[in-house]
Amino acid sequence: MAIKPIVVHPAEVLEQECEPVTVFDRKLSKLLKDMYDTMIELDGVGLAAPQVGVPIQAAVVDIDDHHGTIELINPVIIEKSGSQTGPEGCLSFPGLYGEVERSDFVKVRAQNRKGKPFVIEANGFLARAIQHEIDHLHGILFTSKVKKYIKEEELEELEG
Q: Domain tally for the chain?
C-alpha cells in the first residue's frame, strides 16, 4: 500500500490539460492502485492523476455504492442531462468547500486499466464525483464553478 502525497493548489499540474494514456502497463496499474489507496486513506470519493503529480488522463472514483471502484482512463462525457447543486470539496484544497452545479446524469466513455473501452451511466452523487474528476483531467478546478463557499461547520449541518 503506497499513499502518495496530494498536490495542493496552486500547483501548476492541477491547472493543465492532461495527456491521454497510451500505454496500459504495470506502471499504470500500480499508479491506479496507489491512487485508490491514497483516496481511501484521505477519506475521498475520487482522485485524479494530476492530484498526485502525474499529468495523465486517469482517475479513480468510489462513492461506496454498488458500482464499487471505477477506474476512468481517457474518460469523455458523451451525454449529460438534468441539473443538481450540492456541496463539493477537493483533496487538493484542504478545508475548502462550496456549492457547485453539475449535471444530474452523465454517460461516460472511458477505458479500463487494460485499455478496454467501456461506457458507464451515473446519476446523482456518483455523476457529481465523476464530473469533478474528469474536470481535473482538463485542468478545471471546482473552485471555478463554486456558486457559494461553505464553512466546514455548515457542511456538517448540510450532511445532517
A: 1
pLDDT, tens digit (0-9, with 9 covering 90-100), for 7-17: 999 999 999 99
Residue 3 belongs to a domain? no
DSSP states along the chain: --PPPPP-TT-GGGGSPPBPP---SHHHHHHHHHHHHHHHHTT-SEEEGGGGT--BSEEEE--SSTT--EEEEEEEEEEEE--EEEEEEETTEEEEEEEEEE-SEEEEEEE-TTS-EEEEEEEHHHHHHHHHHHHHHTT--GGGTEEEEE-HHHHHHHH-
| Annotation: binding site | 90, 132, 136
- Residue 102 within any structural domain of the chain: yes
> Taking the model in full, what pTM does it have?
0.96
Domain housing 48: 10-157
CATH code: domain of residue 67: 3.90.45.10
Residues marked as binding for Fe cation? 90, 132, 136
Q: Which residues are catalytic?
A: 133
| Position 1 in a domain | no
104 in any annotated domain: yes
Residue listed under C-alpha cell 492541477: 14
